[in-house]
Design goal:
- The structure is a single chain.
- The chain is an alpha+beta fold.
- It has a single domain, classed as Double-stranded beta-helix (4-Layer Sandwich).
- It is about 20% helix and about 20% strand.
- It has nine helices and 15 strands.
- The strands form four sheets. The chain has a seven-stranded mixed sheet with strand order 2-3-4-14-6-1-5. A three-stranded antiparallel sheet has the order 13-7-15.
- The longest helix has 13 residues.
- It comes from Podospora anserina (strain S / ATCC MYA-4624 / DSM 980 / FGSC 10383).
- Keywords: Dioxygenase, Iron, Metal-binding, Oxidoreductase.
- InterPro entries: AtsK-like, TauD-like_sf, TauD/TfdA-like.
- GO terms for molecular function: 2-oxoglutarate-dependent dioxygenase activity; metal ion binding.
Length: about 350
């Protein structure tokens, strides 16, 4: 199985930001900043509103909690329409039927969807990258954040991203063959592990993690597998009791990914150690601290973020080791994505696991 994966780096988590209105100097929404003049400051001053430009296309909600599918829409048709691309970015967050996150406007009385599916896409690699870049730019990402360059899953492996043999550091090809080589304990034919062990938000070991991600299935297995499951971090947070919500909001977690250095030492893999999509993403320690609960700047809704595989080798800060393990293991929810051509996901609140 080969899956093309494009991550769009974002601003630092909103929970770390003192929100203040920035002057409107570009024709895209502006967002609050960490401090005046900080190059990594997010430029959105408040939640965005879905304008309805995609409502005329056939669509349906995949579940009550997460996921919407457009079975006939070609992303290439809307690629150069900023209004529709912005609505696509917002739509991944503002569609559904729950009111628990509340607001006085109709567009806020909805559930966070987190992921949008598109079938049989004709999107080229360059267009996929352009789509990812525009999703971030049109929702206020800082100018210093670009497409992510994965430390390990990059062009240095020699895996082409298209039929012409093109190599590209900004597109990560998820290869089942290589996963079995590098991670035999997890992906080998005899591996025994729980499916829930794979839940993750992308590249959270980076100081500036992923905002949106585009997942395109290119070569699914012929017999079985190839599915991706999705969970809603918003739904997990909403199901916590008020007391546990308050506790989670007070905590931070250290996200750690030690496997890349292990693969480098065991197989001689070459790692990217500088500017992996943002100037803050450098070095080979692959360790970063993030809030356990994050607020999505597009919706203003809270999501459980310090959970899943991204903290498997990490820990919850400021508590005992046993308390950390209990908190890490607490919540697991899922939603199944069948084999499809393309998915656009908000990595601030949707957590996938791959099979």
């Amino acid at each position: 199985i080969h899956i093309q994966h494009t991550n769009i780096n974002m601003a630092p988590p909103v929970a770390d930001i003192d929100v203040q209105t920035a002057p409107v100097v570009v024709p895209v929404p502006t967002k609050g900043s960490i401090a005046p003049g900080h190059s990594s400051a997010s430029r959105l001053s408040g939640p965005l509103t879905y304008s309805g430009t995609l409502d005329t296309y056939e669509h349906f909600d995949v579940t009550n909690v997460i996921g919407r599918e457009f079975p006939n829409l070609q992303l290439s048709e809307i690629l150069h329409d900023d209004d529709k691309i912005r609505d696509l970015a917002i739509l991944g967050k503002l569609i559904g039927g729950f009111c628990s996150r509340g607001s006085s406007t109709d567009t806020r009385k909805v559930s966070q969807r987190g992921v949008v599916f598109f079938r049989n896409q004709d999107l080229s690699i360059d267009d996929q990258k352009l789509l990812g870049q525009r999703l971030g730019e049109l929702t206020g990402k800082p100018e210093t954040s670009k497409l992510h360059k994965h430390a390990l899953a990059n062009s240095k492996r020699g895996i082409a991203v298209d039929e012409n043999g093109k190599l590209d550091d900004e597109v990560s090809v998820i290869s089942s063959e290589q996963n079995r080589k590098y991670y035999a304990d997890r992906y080998g034919y005899t591996a025994k592990r729980l499916a829930s062990e794979g839940w993750h938000a992308d590249i959270t070991f980076e100081h500036i993690p992923s905002d949106y991600a585009i997942l395109k299935i290119v070569q699914p297995p012929e017999d079985v597998g190839g599915d991706t499951l999705w969970a809603s971090g918003y739904e997990v947070y909403d199901r916590l009791s008020p007391a546990l919500q308050k506790l989670a909001e007070s905590l931070t977690a250290t996200h750690h990914q030690p496997n890349f250095v292990r693969v480098k030492e065991a197989f001689g893999a070459e790692l990217i150690d500088q500017f992996r999509g943002a100037p803050e993403n450098n070095g080979l320690d692959f360790k970063a601290e993030h809030p356990v609960v994050r607020t999505n700047p597009v919706t203003g809704w809270k999501s459980l973020f310090g959970a899943g595989h991204q903290v498997h080798a990490g820990w919850i800060n400021g508590v005992t080791e046993r308390e950390s393990e209990i908190l890490k293991a607490y919540c697991r929810f899922f939603q199944n994505m069948k084999v499809s051509s393309c998915a656009v996901a908000d990595r601030r609140n949707s957590l996938p696991t791959h099979f």
